[in-house]
Amino acid sequence: MEDDIIKIVYLPPLRVASFHAMGKGIGDPETKAWKELKSWAKNRALFDDPTKHQVYGFNNPPPLHINEGKPYGYELWITIPKDLKVEKDIRTKNVDGGMFAVITCRMDEQSIGPTWQKLFQWIQESEDYDYHPNWKPLHEPYDEDHIKHGIVGLEYIPDAPLTNKEEFFIMEIYGPVIQK
């Protein structure tokens, strides 16, 4: 896998259904949020076309003090049509579009952190792109109903509906950028 190749992509504005969970161990909140999203999305045939209904995720709040036994959160989004009626207990968000630097990696504990670091380094060293000025530091939670471009780094999971085995997932990591 060519995980060191960075590409620049533009995401259009998105409407998403959001699933958030908290947990203490690595992978715990991700697994909990995934079970909720998967159950909800399968019942609505949203996994029938993964290119139409993409799955994105991010730490919220991040696992800064996990070694001290403190919980962290993970939030998963699935893109949904504007006209899809959603139950009151399912949170929806409108996400502004924008430009992102993107790198691909395997979805496992050994790959995700180092790949994020490669992306950060690439943005820092880029002659053409810089961090989006509104990208929140990694230690701040994202709790708004309307997510403005640039405040969240995303993990896109293109094959999410195709497998139940997390260790086989390939993901794309999105860092919000602007042109210099």
Describe the structure.
- The protein is an alpha+beta fold and 180 residues long.
- It has a single domain, classed as Multidrug-efflux Transporter 1 Regulator Bmrr, Chain A (Alpha-Beta Barrel).
- The chain has helices spanning 28-42, 109-125, and strands spanning 7-11, 14-23, 55-59, 72-79, 91-95, 98-106, 129-131, 146-147, 154-156, 170-179.
- Strands 1, 2, 3, 4, 5, 6, 7, 8, 9 and 10 form a ten-stranded mixed beta sheet that branches.
- It is globular and about 45 Å long.
- 30% of the residues are buried.
Care to give the gist of this entry?
The protein is built from 2 helices and 10 strands; from the N terminus they run E-E-H-E-E-E-E-H-E-E-E-E.
- The CATH superfamily is identified as Regulatory factor, effector binding domain
How many structurally independent domains? 1
CATH class reads Alpha Beta
Percent of residues in helices: 10-25%
